[in-house]
Amino acid sequence: MRVPPYNRDPGWQRFFSGVVLGAIVGWLIFMLMYGVTLEKNIGDLIKYKEEVKSYKNRIHILTEDNDKLKEEKDQLKIEDFKISIINHEKYMLNSFSRSSIIARITEDLNDQVSKDVASIKDNRQLLIKVIENKSYALDDKRYYFEVDFLYIDTTIEMDLLIVKME
Fold first, then answer.
1. d(Cα 118, Cα 122) in Å, to the nearest integer?
2. Does residue 55 share a domain with residue 127?
3. Which of 66, 88, 129, 137 could be bridged to 93 by S-S, CB 3.0 to 4.6 A?
4. Taking Cα atoms as reference points, which of 129, 164, 165 lies closest to residue 147?
5. Is 69 a member of any domain?
6. DSSP states along 57-89
7. Which domain holds residue 157?
8. For residue 85, is pLDDT > 70?
């Protein structure tokens, strides 16, 4: 048996040439759509890589800032006291008496030196009560104080009022 010759019949020639041209056109359309989709995906991929890079950079910067803040927070310690008695004229305290009372108050507060500022701020009422609940003796007189102003930083600043004198 022999395969009939289709090269002589124009109907079959048109059919095969249509199949070949259709395959070529279909392949070209497929390549065009694939190229457009691939180009879009590559553009998205580049954009996402840039976003990831910027986010990593932002995370790095924020982590460094957080570490610096932690170090600074850990470094803030109480270093000194600045105490003043506001109404010393009313009780006729001279500068020597004032400085000796301030020295005694400072001795009571010396255990707060080199403690964290944050822990002192949390326990500020305890610091106030240490001063207000104790009497300070000088020249056969006892002085009781009230804290008028308290500022806590690396230096604790406080203004005291003499409440009573016995």
1. 6
2. no
3. 88
4. 129
5. yes
6. HHHHHHHHHHHHHHHHHHH-B--EEEEEETTTT
7. 80-165
8. yes
